[in-house]
């Protein structure tokens, strides 16, 4: 995956170590100011975990990066290029940004295999054989190779989410966005998904992960971003953040989730 | 008892009804789906066109539309649809045009309600892997939407089958025109109407049963 990025870099006018840059991003939902002057830079190969209380804007932040949510002001660029508006350009960019949703969103009328080959065939114009070979390899990698010919509704939540990860990986994304990937899962299925994500992180994938899984944040994150009320309150390495949070808001949040 | 049927081409008339139904059905399905696509598109002009079309066309009586396509399009504007010298063929084609244009408004609304049953996450996931609006619609949203609206579309198709009788107004030799002719010439009024009513039930009842079964088979499991 990083090999692809490096060759892309050589072609680009502005080679940069920063893959995703958000500067001064603002967004409102009606009267609610969900994102307030967000500045965030994500380096190539970095794993950034975004945590914070419900309604703090972390999911919205994640969704603005591939423009599933539009922003009111500010700028977002990916790999040195500003985020395009609607149209073909935007579609091309989205193909380079993998996204995993809380509710999996596997295409319900297509088999697991078709879910993973669709983007390769329709967007990357790969031929069917090559797409299937790659899809099967990815499904094996996330441990659901045996389910390739089933429909999403026949799989458990954990299996569906791993298929969703394979579907995103099939596009060879430069960065992967995870929007609360384990929040809709039964407790015993959370680990199987987190393990796949851990493996991805070890393989050097650039990842933005919105999650409530503090264990994952501790073990896999390069950096923890703590959000509250639409603002980034604190950014720190996981050790620093969990052992010695600076802001009162973070201390309060951690005290509520860590001490039962 | 059924002697009065002699000398009339009953099967030919109902065959014309079937041809009108099938061809208008295809025409309205295509046009209605395009209209539904327009009504959910991100382009305001397209949305506006779709909305205006549906609200204008579905509120005009079908008879007016059919007569307009004959009197207005053909007689005034000289539209011949490739059948300038053949009155019967022209009337047939104009009837299909009118029926398709009218039924498309209802197909559009049925398909649009189907689109609304597809969870928004399906379209989001499709956009997130880089599919264009048209690709999202054609490969992800519409295939799921159609499966959930087979029942309402069946209603539209049955209504269309019966609506083809309006084509008699511009002289298309379908079932209703023959019925009118027979009522004028024969004495068995009750039997004549019963025969034609039965003919339509024979056409529409299997349609409903078969499509009902198809709808159950095709339902998307979530």
UniProtKB/TrEMBL annotation, chain A:
Q: Which Gene3D superfamilies match?
A: P-loop containing nucleotide triphosphate hydrolases (3.40.50.300)
The family database entries (InterPro entries) matched by this protein are listed as: AAA+_ATPase, ABC_ATPase_HisP-typ, ABC_transporter-like_ATP-bd, ABC_transporter-like_CS, MetN_ABC_transporter-like, P-loop_NTPase
**Superkingdom of the source species:** Bacteria
Query: Which GO molecular function annotation, any one, does this entry have?
Result: ATP binding
Checking PROSITE patterns in the record gives:
ABC_TRANSPORTER_1, ABC_TRANSPORTER_2
CDD domains linked to this entry:
ABC_HisP_GlnQ
Keyword match Acyltransferase: no
Task: Give the subcellular location.
Answer: Cell membrane
Tell me the ranges covered by the ABC transporter domain, including all copies.
20-254
Q: Pfam families this protein is in?
A: ABC_tran (PF00005)
Among its keywords, does the record have Chloroplast?
Answer: no
Regarding the membrane, this protein is recorded as: Peripheral membrane protein
Keywords attached to this Swiss-Prot or TrEMBL record, sorted alphabetically, are: Amino-acid transport, ATP-binding, Cell membrane, Membrane, Nucleotide-binding, Transport
Q: What family, per the record?
A: Belongs to the ABC transporter superfamily.
Q: What is this protein called?
A: Amino acid ABC transporter ATP-binding protein
Organism of derivation = Streptomyces kurssanovii
Automatic annotation (TrEMBL), chain B:
The protein's location, in the record's own words, is: Cell membrane
Tell me one Pfam family matched here.
Answer: BPD_transp_1
- By its UniProt entry, which InterPro entries does this protein fall under? AA_ABC_transptr_permease_3TM, ArtM/GltK/GlnP/TcyL/YhdX-like, MetI-like, MetI-like_sf
Where the protein is mainly located, per its record? membrane
Against Gene3D superfamilies, the record matches this protein to:
MetI-like
Report domain ABC transmembrane type-1 positions.
Answer: 14-211
**Alphabetic keyword roster:** Amino-acid transport, Cell membrane, Membrane, Transmembrane, Transmembrane helix, Transport
Q: Transmembrane segments in this chain: where?
A: 12-38, 59-84, 90-108, 189-214
| Keyword NAD annotated | no
UniProt topology in membrane: Multi-pass membrane protein
The keyword Transmembrane is annotated on this UniProt entry: yes
Q: SUPFAM superfamilies from the xrefs?
A: MetI-like (SSF161098)
Q: Which family does it belong to?
A: Belongs to the binding-protein-dependent transport system permease family. HisMQ subfamily.
Provide the protein name: Amino acid ABC transporter permease
Source organism of this protein record = Streptomyces kurssanovii
């Amino acid at each position: 995956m990083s090999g692809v990025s490096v060759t892309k870099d050589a072609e680009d006018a502005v080679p940069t170590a920063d893959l995703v840059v958000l500067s001064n991003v603002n967004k409102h939902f009606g009267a609610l100011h969900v994102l307030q002057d967000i500045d965030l830079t994500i380096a190539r190969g970095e794993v950034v975990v975004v945590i914070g209380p419900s309604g703090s804007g972390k999911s919205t932040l994640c969704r603005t990066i591939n423009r599933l949510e539009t922003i009111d002001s500010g700028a977002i660029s990916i790999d040195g290029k500003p985020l395009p508006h609607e149209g073909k350009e935007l579609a091309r960019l989205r193909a380079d940004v993998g996204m995993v949703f809380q509710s999996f969103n596997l295409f319900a009328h297509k088999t697991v295999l078709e879910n993973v080959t669709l983007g390769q065939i329709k967007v990357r114009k790969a031929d069917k054989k090559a797409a299937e070979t790659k899809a099967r390899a990815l499904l094996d990698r996330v441990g659901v190779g045996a389910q390739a010919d089933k429909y999403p509704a026949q799989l458990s939540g954990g299996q569906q989410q791993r298929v969703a990860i394979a579907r995103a990986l099939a596009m060879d994304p430069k960065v992967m966005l995870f929007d609360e990937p384990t929040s809709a899962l039964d407790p015993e299925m959370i680990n199987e998904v987190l393990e796949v994500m851990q493996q991805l992180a070890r393989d050097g994938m650039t990842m933005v992960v919105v999650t409530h899984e503090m264990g994952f944040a501790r073990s896999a994150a390069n950096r923890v971003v703590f959000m509250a009320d639409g603002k980034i309150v604190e950014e720190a390495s996981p050790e620093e953040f969990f052992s010695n949070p600076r802001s009162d808001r973070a201390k309060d949040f951690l005290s509520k989730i860590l001490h039962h | 008892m059924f002697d009065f049927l002699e000398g009339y081409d009953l099967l030919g008339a109902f065959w014309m009804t079937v041809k009108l139904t099938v061809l208008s059905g295809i025409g309205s399905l295509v046009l209605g789906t395009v209209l539904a696509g327009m009504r959910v598109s991100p382009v305001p002009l397209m949305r506006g066109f779709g909305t205006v079309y549906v609200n204008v066309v579905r509120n005009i009586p079908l008879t007016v539309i059919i007569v307009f396509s004959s009197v207005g399009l053909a007689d005034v504007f000289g539209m011949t649809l490739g059948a300038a010298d053949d009155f019967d063929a022209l009337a047939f084609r104009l009837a299909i045009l009118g029926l398709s244009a009218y039924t498309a408004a209802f197909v559009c609304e049925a398909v649009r309600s189907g689109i609304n049953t597809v969870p928004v996450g399906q379209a989001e996931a499709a956009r997130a892997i880089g599919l264009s609006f048209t690709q999202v619609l054609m490969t992800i949203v519409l295939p799921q939407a159609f499966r959930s609206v087979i029942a309402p579309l069946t209603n539209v198709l049955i209504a269309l089958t019966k609506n083809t009788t309006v084509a008699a107004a511009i002289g298309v030799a379908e079932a209703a025109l023959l019925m009118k002719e027979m009522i004028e010439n024969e004495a068995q009024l009750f039997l004549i109407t019963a025969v034609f009513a039965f003919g339509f039930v024979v056409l529409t009842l299997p349609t409903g049963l078969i499509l009902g079964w198809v709808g159950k088979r095709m339902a998307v499991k979530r």
